[in-house]
Amino acid sequence: MNEMNVPRPNNLDAYWMPFSDNRYFKSNPRLLARAEGMFYHTADGQEILDGTAGLWCCNAGHGRREIKEAIQQQAAILDYAPTFQLGHPIAFEAAARIAELTPEGMDRIFFTNSGSESADTALKIALAYHRARGESSRVRLIGRERGYHGVGFGGMSVGGIGGNRKQFGALLPYVDHLPHTHGIEANLFARGLPEHGAERADALEALVALHGAETIAAVMVEPVAGSTGVLVPPRGYLERLRAICDKHGILLIFDEVITGFGRIGTNFGAERLGVTPDIMTMAKGLTNAAVPMGAVAVKNAVYDAVVDNAPAGIELFHGYTYSGHPLAAAAAIATMELHRAEDLPGRARAIEPLWQEATHSLKGLPNVVDIRDFGLIAGIELAPRPGKPGQRGTEVFRRCFDKGVLVRVTGDIIALSPPLIIEKPHVDRLYGTLADAIRAEAA
Ligand SMILES: Cc1ncc(COP(=O)(O)O)c(C=O)c1O
């Protein structure tokens, strides 16, 4: 133990780190040892301002006492109980609490353990729904270029990130993709929802014409795409997607893994964006990331179709050993209580104008080629170094970290998504440090 009473590992070999440059990390380790409020602390005692809420997940800030105590108490009462043909009370309570936040008529909740599992669960429910209604030809799943829906085979296939797919062969059959909504010149440096590009939703009509509506089960998109560098939907785009889905009997799935639980100023993105999907995935902010948990909310009619049309017995042959795990359910209930009591969506909305101003103040710095924001999300796109894509972004990340600020980088795009409890001094420090790092990497 060191002076901060945290373990200091001296062997980094055994752990194969996810989505990481293992070789670089293990020769230049950055170990986060503890966290509280807006800050991480490294094993060496350095304070790091969290500009990313971990991985878009610690919306209520770190180390919240209420969540910790709920987990501790639950561990003492019931460590684990199966939810296959059995139940335990707090899984039901957690589902009911989530249903209070989801759009009206979307009150049926299926538990998973991650965003990836939520994505695959949502896709499976969509397929089961059509089959239950006698439309078993609807097997085609439509995603979008640059979409991220985790790393299961379903989410990876429907997702649109080449780099995440290329090592893994053929993936799921019967998958197609809409074009992404990015790269429209007139939208550069837009504040909030960009004005141009709603017509890109019409590509769904083209896929319907190509494959036949009777083959298409669902379309899955993130309301605001985060992982591929903050792609904010053009005004009217999601409405158009909804209308085309309705016209052709296609289910619309929103992946709300990052937009859920206050990130864009409302409980879910659906609310702020004014479009209600049929199925919605969530994870991350659900438990403030204190215990892994994901969930899928479905319209009651979707649940009814699957459950009421099934022969007696199990209605959906899907689930996880840890679906509705007691510790995760306890963390979720405590988190949603904080969400309500502290009005986290309201806090995000209140600071959004200042956040937006600070974000766009980076315009004019060297190599800043675009800036996007919505809610408490920001994307700052840098021009790549010739022949070295991603290098400038990585250097900016490292400089910020060394100066005590955590930002996230996707290629040469800096993505920011702070805890929703962020205040002005944090915003100032975050953007001050980032601006210095961008200037320092001008060459
Ligand atoms: C929109 C979206 N969907 C799914 C996932 C995958 O979640 P997880 O890493 O919990 O599997 C993420 C993770 O960043 C995400 O942003």
TrEMBL record:
Q: Which CDD domains does the protein's record reference? A: OAT_like
Q: Which SUPFAM superfamilies match?
A: PLP-dependent transferases
Tell me, what is an example of a GO biological process annotation in this record?
biotin biosynthetic process
- Give the record's keywords alphabetically: Aminotransferase, Pyridoxal phosphate, Pyruvate, Transferase
One MF term in the entry's GO annotations: pyridoxal phosphate binding
**In this record, what's one Pfam family?**
Aminotran_3
Q: Determine the domain of life of the protein's source.
A: Bacteria
List residues traversing the bilayer.
Answer: none
Question: Which cofactors go with this protein?
Answer: pyridoxal 5'-phosphate
Family, similarity comment: Belongs to the class-III pyridoxal-phosphate-dependent aminotransferase family.
What protein name does the entry list? Beta-alanine--pyruvate transaminase
